[in-house]
């Protein structure tokens, strides 16, 4: 019976309900926002965020909680310099919907920080594509943690459509 319920049980959402949080408009135009510096996406979601273990409740709230099959939700993220980080003076925090969800891996932080200083001469908020994965709950002994991945072109560069939009303005 458990096998049957696993494959044919109730869906985690009602038909017609989106599989992404309500704070994402679904248009995919994360780079079209005024007053931000959007970074170009890489091939796939190529950069896992670190430290998200301490932000599991926050990430869960962003995607509407756990569900049986887990999440795979794309949304915009913001990169912020974490100058108060005692472990890494080059730390770059990752925020989604104004909530901290982790950091850029320390191996890349110094390189990214230098690139962001060079690209962002106007000191605009820096955005990129993010994806929240995991968070399944299939019972007492089968619960997955949430993870966050970023899609970034490496070396970092500004999204090409953002440059065009800034020229028109």
UniProtKB/TrEMBL annotation:
Listed Gene3D superfamilies: 3.30.70.2330
Protein name as catalogued: HIRAN domain-containing protein
């Amino acid at each position: 019976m458990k096998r049957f319920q696993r494959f044919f049980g109730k869906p985690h959402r009602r038909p017609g309900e989106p599989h992404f949080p309500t704070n994402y408009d679904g248009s995919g135009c994360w780079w079209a926002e005024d007053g931000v510096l959007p970074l170009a996406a890489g091939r796939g979601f190529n950069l896992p965020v670190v430290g998200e273990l301490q932000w599991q409740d926050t990430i869960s709230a962003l995607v509407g909680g756990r569900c049986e099959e887990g999440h795979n939700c794309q949304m915009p993220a913001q990169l912020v310099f974490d100058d108060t980080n005692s472990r890494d003076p080059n730390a770059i925090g990752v925020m989604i919907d104004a909530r901290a969800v982790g950091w850029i891996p320390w191996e890349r932080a110094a390189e990214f920080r230098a690139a962001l200083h060079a690209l962002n001469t106007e000191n605009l908020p820096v955005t990129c594509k993010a994806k929240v994965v995991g968070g399944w709950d299939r019972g007492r002994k089968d619960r997955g943690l949430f993870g966050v991945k970023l899609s970034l072109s490496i070396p970092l560069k500004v999204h090409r459509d953002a440059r065009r939009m800034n020229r028109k303005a």
